[in-house]
Design a protein that fits this description.
With about 180 residues, the chain is α+β, with helices and mostly antiparallel strands. Helix content is about 40%, strand content about 15%.
Length: about 180
C-alpha cells in the first residue's frame, strides 16, 4: 500500500492540536490531538511511499515505533486515505497514461469522496474508459452530452444523427455557430 490523503480533502489546522480534513460539512473530519511531528508526517502521505519507507521516515522524525501503522489505520477507518497503487490491472494501465490521467484528475478527486476502498477511484475511472455509449441525436442536448461523456473519460462515445445542424442547435459547450 502507498497511502495518500484523498486529494479533494484540503487540510487545515483548527487549533494547535487539531487537523481538519475537508472543508464542506458533508466531508469534513477532524483528527486530534496531533503533535507537531505527526502534523509534519502527514505531508508524507502523498502516495509516493510505501509503508516500509514511511516507517523509516517516521524513525528519522523520532516518532514512536508503531505510530505510522496506528495513524494509517486511523486515517483509513475515517475514510481519509486512498492507495495510490491500488485499483487492479485496469487502473495500472491507466496510470501508464499520464496525459489521460492529468485530464481526469478532477474526476479522480471527486470519486475519492464517494468511494471508500483503497484504489476504488482509479478503478472506477478505468472502468469508464472501457465503456461504450451511443448518443442518438446531436442537437442542442446530444452534442453537449456527448462532449461531457467524452470529457469524463468514457472510452467510446458514438454519436448518431442523420440531420443537419440548425441555428437552434448552437449552444455554449456544444455545437459552435460555424457548424
Amino acid at each position: 500500500m502507498h497511502p495518500m490523503v484523498k486529494p479533494a480533502l484540503r487540510r487545515g489546522w483548527r487549533d494547535l492540536n487539531t487537523v481538519q480534513f475537508g472543508m464542506t460539512p458533508a466531508h469534513a473530519l477532524t483528527l486530534g490531538p496531533v503533535d507537531t511531528a505527526t502534523g509534519s508526517f502527514l505531508d508524507l502521505l502523498n502516495g509516493t511511499r510505501g509503508l516500509d519507507l514511511l516507517r523509516e521516515e517516521a524513525r528519522r522524525m523520532d516518532l514512536p515505533e508503531g505510530h505510522v501503522d496506528r495513524l494509517v489505520r486511523r486515517l483509513s477507518r475515517a475514510g481519509l486515505l486512498d492507495d495510490s497503487r491500488g485499483g487492479g490491472p485496469a487502473a495500472e494501465t491507466l496510470r501508464k497514461k499520464p496525459e489521460v490521467l492529468d485530464r481526469l484528475r478532477p474526476d479522480l478527486a471527486s470519486l475519492a469522496l464517494t468511494t471508500s476502498g483503497p484504489g476504488d477511484p482509479l478503478r472506477r475511472l478505468a472502468a469508464r474508459r472501457s465503456m461504450r455509449v451511443q448518443v442518438r441525436g446531436a442537437g442542442r442536448v446530444g452534442a453537449a452530452l456527448a462532449a461531457l461523456l467524452s470529457g469524463a473519460g468514457v472510452g467510446e462515445v458514438d454519436v448518431r444523427d442523420l440531420g443537419q445542424v440548425e441555428p437552434w442547435d448552437v449552444v455554449p459547450g456544444g455545437l459552435p455557430a460555424e457548424a
